[in-house]
């Protein structure tokens, strides 16, 4: 998950009956991605596809509104910075004033940059949100509307957003101008388009998937889940001042899970990722690195240690074999987990400064979603001599999540990005020095992928407000949707909006899909 405006950057297995995999029990952990090299339609041939970047075509500013000068020093609630004289404000009579709107913004810089945001509007007096913060000021000038939100930090620092509507060429959606400020100074101006968020045209709540149970999580916003030992471990991040932590469910009966424990630490409560091996549960903490819990008693995790020590932001974790990988502010941390409860740090993979978002490991290869740096492949055969083998980049990219498997003797990666126009790409990474795109799959350009799991010839995707999507990738050059469940509901009014909905999922081979949804908690689905 990437925070709007980039002010901070905190965000396997098989169903035996359906996929022809060996049976497993509800107590089995999430397994690794199985080899998919036999029995499928694809013969390994493909025509390389040109990579031109995301589907967002720049046609210029989204709206004719402009900004007065000078901007520098303008207050974060000063709506006089907007000049709407060139706007057809009369069209705003039909603009929406209720519901949730996805914002795509274009900066005034040259060349421009594209960002994403959200606006939650309510006509009943309820709390409204702009970029995940409560709207503190609202004003009107005829049909034009103005909104601002601010957030103050413990050290006295402040960030804020101002927004003005301009026109409604496709009501209830509208366009306008917005500005981002920090500590009272305008840093960025932009135009935007806002589209009201609903289920995709023609879709119902679900197709091919059914809801078995819905289990609220009381702390923060749930963003990841891991299933092992008959229990689901759900981690949460801070949202609207509510601290996150760990919630444990006994899922021995998936139709009626039982919440058995909640864990929070007073000064360490932004937990974004979770994985397990044996009796060890690994939690990604934004302030203390990797938290190691003993789950020998599955319903009662006990915190043993924090690794590697000190203040370090770990965003996600991934275990494969006797290695644990942690995406951190110091690069990818590598640990030996031969003794799972006593990880030993081996090295750090940091070809670039900054926080990688996620990673996938398979054998001696590490596949890293290095955010703005792109998608990278490294050789980790010798953890003390890690070598970058290749990378894949494209304009305006934010590499976010991936899963890797073998198809017809070739190593393929399914890579998902986050941001305007991002979507699923299928990459041939057999030769990491020459990565080739061979396929893609797209939904709405305003909504991003958060996470995915590859199970044989099916790819399960947690796609934020698009919910859970199941793709048949037996022909990986042409992924085809075969099932979906719309976890997002408009009435839920998740203040996170852009980063909201289905965050993560697990498919542990017991016939169920476990989903961490930021608003609804732990959802357990079953394929029909």
UniProtKB/TrEMBL annotation:
Keyword Chaperone in the entry? The reply is no
Q: Where is the signal peptide?
A: 1-26
Source superkingdom: Bacteria
Keywords annotated in UniProt: Signal
Give the protein name, as stated in the record: LVIVD repeat-containing protein
UniProt cross-references to InterPro entries, sorted A to Z: LVIVD (IPR013211), Quino_amine_DH_bsu (IPR011044), WD40/YVTN_repeat-like_dom_sf (IPR015943)
Source organism per entry reads Archangium lansingense
**Protein's UniProt keywords contain Acetylation:** no
